[in-house]
Amino acid sequence: MRLLVLYGSQTGTAQDVAEQIWRESRQWGFQGPVLSLEDYDIQQLVEERLVIFVVATTGDGMEPDNMKQAWRFLLKRSLPSHSLNGLQFACLGLGDSSYSKFNYAAKKLHKRLLNLGAKSICPLGLCDDQHDYGHLGTSLAWTAELWNTLSNTLAVHKQKEQLLVKRWNVRVLEQSAPLDEERLQWTQRQAAHVFKLAENTRTTAADHFQDVRLLRLARSTETTSWQPGDVLEVQPQNSCELVKDFFDLLKEHQLQFDASTVVEVSSAHEDLPLPLAYSKPLSLQQAAKYIWDLSARPRQRLLEVLAQNCEDEMEREKLLEFCSAEGLEDLISYVNRPRRMLLELLQDFRHAMAKLTLSQLFEMMPLIQTRSFSIASDQSAKTLDLLVAVVNYKTIMHTPRLGLCSNWLKDLEVGVELRAAIKPGTMTWPKEAQTPLIMIGPGTGIAPFRSIIQNRLNLQQLGQNVGPLVVFFGCRNQSKDYHFEEDFKSWQENNGVEVHVAFSRDQENKVYVQHLIKQHGAHLAKLIREQNAYIYVAGSSNNMPKAVREAFIEALDNDVMFMEQLIKHRRYQEETWA
Description:
Elongation Factor Tu (Ef-tu), domain 3; 6-stranded parallel sheet; 19 helices; FNR_nucleotide-bd; FMN; cytoplasm
């Protein structure tokens, strides 16, 4: 019987969960592909009888990029309410409850499918990244219940012999044409622009705990354009040190392949698309540098594959235990809490590593995912600017945990070429430039607001009437992490922007942006109520967004209903990240 698994994924986690459900479906005797929603002709949904959706929520309650087109189709008013009468479905959402619009994309999809006549075969699953076990805290139990329901309703049975379902066929090429390395620097569908790095400077003091980088990218062509609020999507690469460690590990175990091995990868299933990264022959050196995420946290799929050939009973039992619901606490303690990397796990399971085959290596390695950064300059500026906080922190592991993308960007040398795509962000601006803007961007959250302020001031210079611009910025110390200090001074001197800055550690009592909002509450309330001001919040998703929202509610005479209306009509927008 056909079972289709569709996913909308932004960072790869939803795809990982969807592929695991697809593998399990094969063990239950089902046939059918696992596809991203952009790889599937959504108009064919009317012909389907059984579909599992796995959908992440990104940004301020938004659907992932590879779901947008399908979602637009499903929202068409012309679709009859009985369109999907023949469809049975189940929907699993991946979200983070620290965001106000928790699992919004999955909730909206579930509701829309019901409105179109489809029948839900089990309750909507809502995974929460804040759970001690992450998404596994919900997804494992939800999936088990899914198979139990299908077993009872369709009389399907799980096969006793548990065969590992593989995705790819890997063939070693003894001789090959010259390998195309340049294409591996960008393996996404969307066309990339080429930039040249003009500047890479640290904006924080040398003795400050956080390294923050200002990267200025020069456009290769004048046709490269963007709007305020847009983001730059980049595809990072592994460091030379990580790549060396990986091949040292292969050499230590005397495996039958090394950096120079060239392979051709094809799909093991007719209906399973091949990633663009594998569309042409490549060497393992190239895969390790450009394609595989060597610093990723190991997922259960990797452990499952690693256990397959392991002849050491203790290691095999431990790996399989990690893959079970019963071993979840041990897995979280071993991988998630210390932020253990994939390479470190391979070093720990030496017997399993010694039996690894080339096919298994490709099967278990996660692909590097792109990262997006708010563009911090207007198109009228000479360069496209990024403000990037470099991720570097300690756990119980003996080496610091380094963010793959931010450290890659930090180490880029001036003059190097960079391929990246420009994409719309989640923020939408009022159509009239006269509408007042109130912007709250502590830390690197200031980036998108520098872009819109530059844009509005440029319009002003061109003779357009521009409404009031109010910006709140926060950091620890004026002398340590005051990003874009010269910009703030220039804005204030020109009287074009009303600037409020909170240096939380420069006085005995900590002062944050929410305190300044309360201080200027009457003025802000007047802008909001009388001049229809728009409010934008960007930055860390920890405590700041909630505290800022509460400060605005207080400024609006505790009118919670009015705040809800602002949010509903997109006059209050948040773009936050964990």
